[in-house]
Specification:
318 residues, alpha/beta, Rossmann fold, 2 domains, 11 helices, 12 strands, 35% helix
């Protein structure tokens, strides 16, 4: 039975209101570290990114039935040990899939049509440069979507009105749909003009966009990364931008973020390759906000509540 839940990050007020209405006891702790928190009496934990749920913390959770992470990634949770202890991991990637998809398309439109560059030229230098800011259309291009889960599917669906050819690659079979044809990676390498990354952060995807990977593409392409920064090796991306293997990059996430996505400029002596990206006209950045909309904040919490209620009902039936 699930009765007592500890909430470790401030979220939409709906989450506590709805859980209490369903009869759950909800405690809140938005300040303490995992070393201080007494988790022993709780049946469930809800968090976002403030804390890392490691083996030491899970060992103390003698009654824990679930760990719910609001969002799509669960890399701040020791999933292997939690599952070994019989704890169910819950996340809510459905809640921000549309936000991520819209953001990815927005970044792509900006970089292919020089929207940010021309805006800055006008407001900072009074330059009205039309020819050097002549854009490129998405129409007629081939877009390779790597990772065809919730966000990948939403991205392809929203792109369907652009009259582009959309291919998808995923480690799972038969996930293609009317919006994207599922192909092998060789087809992605051969045909893609644009590549959008929508994979979870795992041992397999860590550093997957490296120079050996990039040089397999038959033609230069635009890269979009709204998944996790650690999937792209920054120095290798810089090399590919310098030699023209990649036309441009849209980066909402960076290799140097930690699990809580704090401001990287506060903690790192930034390498030369990243400084190159910052000053490059071929790159646009956003601070990990692709899934960070007013609507997604509510939808992610709503999905978590639905899944907790469903899990509670399921456990009560066994």
């Amino acid at each position: 039975m699930i009765k007592k839940i500890l909430i470790l990050d401030q979220n939409h007020p709906f989450i506590i209101y709805k859980l209490k209405k369903e009869g759950f006891i909800c405690d809140e702790n938005y300040k303490d570290s995992t070393d201080i928190i007494d988790i022993s009496s709780y049946d469930g934990v809800i968090l976002r990114s403030r804390l890392k749920i490691d083996k030491k913390f899970i060992k103390k959770a003698t009654n824990l039935k679930f760990i719910a992470r609001i969002g799509s990634g669960t890399e701040n949770i020791d999933k292997d040990y939690a599952v070994k202890k019989g704890i169910i991991i819950i996340s809510s990637p459905e809640g921000n899939k549309d936000a991520v998809a819209e953001h990815a398309i927005g970044m792509l439109l900006c970089i292919m049509n020089y929207i940010i560059r021309s805006h800055q030229q006008i407001i900072t230098r009074g330059k009205w440069n039309r020819e050097i800011n002549r854009g490129i259309e998405i129409m007629g291009k081939t877009i390779g979507v790597i990772g065809y889960g919730n966000t990948g599917k939403a991205f392809a669906k929203k792109l369907s009105g652009f009259d582009a050819k959309i291919l998808c690659y995923d480690i799972l079979p038969k996930v293609g749909d009317v919006y994207a044809k599922q192909v092998n990676m060789n087809s992605i390498f051969t045909k893609s003009d644009i590549v959008s990354l929508h994979v979870p952060y795992t041992k397999e995807t860590k550093g997957m966009i490296n120079y050996n990977f990039i040089k397999k593409f038959c033609k230069p392409f635009y890269l979009i990364n709204t998944s996790r920064g650690g999937c792209v090796i920054t120095s290798h991306l810089a090399k590919a931008l310098k030699n023209g293997k990649i036309y441009g990059a849209c980066l909402d996430v960076l290799e140097y973020e930690n699990f809580s996505f704090n401001n990287i400029f506060h903690y790192y002596k930034l390498p030369k390759s990243f400084l190159y990206l910052i000053h490059s006209k071929k790159v646009i950045f956003t601070p990990h906000i692709a899934g960070w909309t007013k609507e997604s904040k509510y939808k992610m919490d709503q999905k978590i509540v639905e899944k907790i209620i469903f899990l509670s009902q399921k456990l009560n039936q066994t």
